[in-house]
Amino acid sequence: MAASTGGLRLRSSESFFGKAQGKGEGIQVFKVSFYGASRSMRSLVVKASSKHQSIEMINGRKVNGVNVADVGKKSAQLVVENRGDAPAHACLLGRFVEDHFVYRQTFVIRSYEIGPDKTATMETLMNLLQETALNHVMSSGLAGNGFGATREMSLRKLIWVVTRIHLQVDKYSSWGDVVEIDTWVNAAGKNGMRRDWIIRDYHSQKIITRATSTWVIMNRETRRLCKIPDQVREEVNPFYLDRVTIAASENHCNKIDRLTDRTAQRIRSGLAPRWSDMDANQHVNNVKYIGWILESVPINVLADYNLTSMTLEYRRECRQSNLLESLTSMQPSVGDAQGSERNKCLESTHLLRMQDDKAEIIRARCEWNSKHKHGHPL
To answer: Is 64 an active-site residue?
Structure first.
């Protein structure tokens, strides 16, 4: 077998059996030939065995102290469980369960998705939720030519926009962990849609994160909200599942107070969206706001506390040309009047606004738990 792309060629020998080792596993040998900057030919030989082997040394050195053997075993289990008549990409896009009402997808937490404490960040969780939601629409056969829009929405130049998201995190996964995400949708009033998620640890099947959100429809050209057309309602209605992931008493539906220059304890100005912050709907991706919100949080809180709950209320779009300000006010938790069993050390209120005219973009409320057993609130 041989393949060539520019100066890169891939060659593989025929399969053979490692009789010299006294074992019958099949081994495939690949030789990669390529040209260096000086146009000199270089080669790299790679051997791949169908039998799992522990790889702890490369060129006589340890692989960063990571037990690659364990990671390989986890990946092998995932592949085996997704085998069958499904297409090769099924394990990557996920699958439908529970009579096609719930969409399920698995992810591995990558090294670039973790923070200083080597665990996934809130932005990582939000990105995984968004990815699962988009793949849900695509796999359902409803996807049009928009970013998560259905065919009938695309015909009418309509897009989905999020108005509210609430997350509760019991545990942040670590680098290399495998998570399983379920998502489903239901109606939210007359002209909205609710999307819920749960994140499980793949191996223990314990739920580690719950999230719920509300979405409405906006015209892509006029940027105005509008009612859900009957044709769109007919498309999505068969997928509606009447199930909630967060109880009403835990959903924090009460209004988030608006911060001002007088009530905010910290203000960070001059935050500028980049081109890479924009999404396919021509506005700043909703996940990007989290990083800007946290810009005004004291560094000792970020270092010593886990963000265990976040509620985001989106007020308006943000474009690349806008300069933003992030406002934060923090206070010790005074307990939950609704009798919540979730332990809290700190509560915070946030506002992200335009720097020039002070127009609101997003309000947020967060809860924080100390990473230490005997934490002390501010």
So the answer is: no
298-327: per-residue pLDDT in tens?
Answer: 999 999 999 999 999 999 988 888 899 999
Query: Is 318 considered catalytic here?
Result: yes
Identified catalytic residue from 135, 136, 186, 281: 281
How many Å apart are CA 295 and CA 313, to the nearest integer? 18
Catalytic residue, from 286, 318, 345, 350: name it: 318
Give the integer Cα–Cα distance in Å for 232 and 156.
10
Q: Is 283 a catalytic residue?
A: yes
161-176 b/e (C-beta count within 10 Å ≥ 16 → b): bbebbbbbbebbbebb
Active-site residue identified among 136, 166, 252, 283:
283
Alpha helix (H) residue ranges in the chain: 68-81, 90-93, 122-139, 151-155, 230-236, 288-294, 299-304
pTM for the predicted model, two decimal places: 0.73
pLDDT digits (tens, 9 = 90+) for 180-208: 999 999 999 989 999 999 999 999 999 99
What sign does the CA torsion over 110, 111, 116, 118 have? positive
